[in-house]
């Protein structure tokens, strides 16, 4: 058995994507989400990291996108950019109650991203994981944490995420350590090392490799060639939905990279 693989980009409003690069020439800006959501199968929303939105906005996104499409939302920076994570309960509450459930079945995982300076404090991070709500307004919530400090490459971190059912984000980045241990019932990957000089961001060989990795994840495996902190404790074999985003790096190449990967998976 295999889970569903969704591939997408970060956001849909980016000037270099216009005028024939991704969006057709003279395509109306107010219809960019409509177009992008029919070329991708998921989009990661970065704007929710910086500010809150009203319920009608989430409802509008829902209505502008096709059946089966999914949004993942980056959680507010006020939840994660703090010295003591255990004090984030109020900010987490504000984030999940702002109207995100208007997305309905188009609401994918919530991404909780931490600054590269944030180090692993086991007790504090365990307390943070305990604050993540399993549901809101009757809708199940899925959570993924992106950590970017090498201190998180630790078996204890993997075990606590697995116990909480929270996925660890795998980030292919030249700046931060990547951690590929499977801990949730889905996989969240951010491919951040695209090259501007390559039309599709990643070469054909690289895209072929990421397609193989995504299919392996979807089958519940932990592929060879990636970094693990506690690989031996993973039992494997459980199908997982997979979310892969072409993000950062050479952002102008992200749509072409995502579409090329979609063709392969």
Write the topology of this structure.
Blueprint (H helix, E strand, L loop, with lengths): L4 E6 L21 H5 L5 E4 L1 H4 L4 H10 L5 E5 L2 H4 L8 H8 L10 E7 L8 H10 L3 E2 L2 E2 L2 E4 L8 H10 L2 E2 L1 E3 L13 E6 L12 H15 L22 E6 L7 H11 L1
Helix pairs in contact: 6-7, 8-9
Query: What's the story with the biggest beta sheet?
Result: 9 strands, parallel
**What is the overall silhouette?**
globular
pLDDT under 50 segments (min length 5)? Answer: none
Distance between the termini: 15 Å
CATH superfamily: Protein of unknown function UPF0759
Helix residue percentage: 25-40%
CATH class: Alpha Beta
How many helix segments? Answer: 9
Q: Domains counted in the coordinates: how many?
A: 1
Q: What is the third-level CATH name, the topology?
A: TIM Barrel
Give, in order, the helices and strands: EHEHHEHHEHEEEHEEEHEH
Supply the helix-strand structural class: alpha/beta
Instruction: Trace the largest sheet across and list its strands.
Output: 8-7-4-3-2-1-11-10-9
The tally of strands reads: 11
Output mean pLDDT: 96
Q: Determine Rg (CA atoms, Å).
A: 18 Å
- CATH architecture assignment: Alpha-Beta Barrel
- Proportion of residues in extended strands: 15-25%
């Amino acid at each position: 058995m295999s889970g569903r693989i969704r591939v997408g980009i970060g956001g849909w409003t980016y000037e270099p994507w216009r005028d024939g690069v991704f969006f057709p020439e003279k395509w109306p800006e107010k219809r960019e989400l409509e177009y992008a959501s029919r070329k991708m199968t998921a989009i990661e929303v970065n704007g929710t990291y910086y500010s809150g939105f009203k319920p009608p906005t989430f409802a509008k996104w829902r209505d502008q996108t096709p059946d089966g499409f999914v949004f993942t939302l980056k959680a507010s920076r006020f939840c994660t950019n703090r010295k003591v994570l255990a004090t984030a309960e109020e900010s987490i509450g504000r984030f999940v109650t702002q109207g995100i459930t208007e997305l309905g079945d188009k609401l994918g995982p919530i991404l909780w991203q931490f600054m590269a300076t944030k180090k692993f404090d086991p007790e504090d991070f365990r307390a943070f994981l305990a604050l993540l709500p399993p549901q809101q307004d009757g809708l199940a919530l899925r959570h993924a944490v992106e950590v970017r400090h090498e201190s998180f490459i630790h078996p204890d971190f993997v075990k606590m995420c697995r116990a909480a059912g929270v996925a660890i984000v795998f980030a292919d980045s030249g700046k931060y350590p990547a951690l590929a241990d499977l801990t949730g019932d889905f996989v969240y990957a951010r491919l951040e090392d695209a090259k501007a000089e390559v039309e599709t961001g990643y070469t054909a060989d690289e895209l072929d490799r990421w397609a193989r990795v995504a299919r392996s994840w979807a089958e519940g495996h932990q592929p060879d060639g990636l970094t693990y902190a506690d690989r031996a404790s993973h039992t494997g074999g459980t199908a997982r939905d997979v979310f892969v985003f072409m993000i950062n790096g050479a952002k102008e190449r992200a749509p072409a990279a995502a579409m090329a990967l979609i063709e392969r998976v």
